[in-house]
Write a structure and sequence with these properties.
With 84 residues, the protein is an alpha+beta fold. The protein is built from three helices and five strands. It has a single domain, classed as Beta-grasp domain (Ubiquitin-like (UB roll), Roll), CATH 3.10.20. Strands 2-1-5-3-4 form a five-stranded mixed beta sheet.
């Protein structure tokens, strides 16, 4: 069985991925780290650099790369923001 995750890219992650949102099919038992690996495969080294410095929200809750994903999950990719 598989699961589908909706990934929303913000700021520099959006620019590096070339899109604002992506739907990714992953195997059961996938984690945020699994998703990150898949996104790098799908979108290349520019996004890999951004993802290495990004935070991830799973269903609007922050967490680490070991967090398990579920079917229909929403993952927000938040690169470091600059501003003042």
């Amino acid at each position: 069985m598989a699961l589908t995750v909706v990934v929303r890219f913000f700021a520099g992650a959006r620019a590096a991925a070339g899109l604002a949102e992506d739907k990714v099919d992953l195997p059961d038992g996938a984690t945020v780290a699994t998703l990150v690996s898949r996104l790098v495969e799908d979108h290349g080294p520019a996004l890999a650099r951004v993802l290495a410095a990004s935070s991830f929200l799973l269903d609007e809750v922050a967490g680490g790369p070991e967090r398990a994903l579920h079917d229909g999950a929403q993952v927000d990719v938040l690169p470091p923001f600059a501003g003042g």
